Amino acid sequence: MKRFLGLLVGFLMLGTGFVFSEMPSEKGMGHDREMKHEMGEKGEKEEDVRNVKMYLKSRQELNLTDEQVKTLEKIRMDYKRDAIKRQADMKLARLDLREIITQDKPDFTAAKTKTKQISELQLVSKLAMIDAMEKGFNTLTKEQQDKLLQLKKERKENW
Q: Is-above-0.90 flag for pTM?
């Protein structure tokens, strides 16, 4: 019976691992560049809106105004604040799931419900990333957007 429960827990953990995996990139492998996680304080992973970060790094080439810089920084910081909350919610949900499936008599219905909740939290996180990316992109003028495409093309060629 213990062996069976051990296998069952293992399969559930493996299954939830797929739920937690990142979305594939345009090429179908690895992590999407726009959803890259960077190391924050104390070695914890910190979500960031990479394209907004790139706009800020390229402020001179894009000729960003002070107002645009402030807007982009606000988009980035708002996203990061919300991401911290979402990450905490996901950690708690994963902890709850682990507790549910490691009980002597696991509640599989509750485990499925908790897994769906975790999936929903991940979806909300990815949609928030896309929303932040859209806000950042829309902060740029048409000329700056064109310049951005040119910069991306040049960087790709130099890679």
A: no
Model pLDDT for residues 70-84, shown as the tens digit of each residue: 999 999 999 999 999
What percent helix, strand, coil does the chain show, rounded to 5? 75, 5, 20
Helix (H) / strand (E) element for 62: namely helix 59-62
Distance CA 29, CA 10 (A): 25
What tens digit of pLDDT does each residue of 39-59 get?
444 445 567 888 899 999 999
CA distances 42 to 39, 45, 151, Å, are 8, 9, 33
Task: Please identify which residue in the block is written with the tokens 């996180």.
Answer: 125
CA angle 153–154–157, rounded 5-degree value: 85
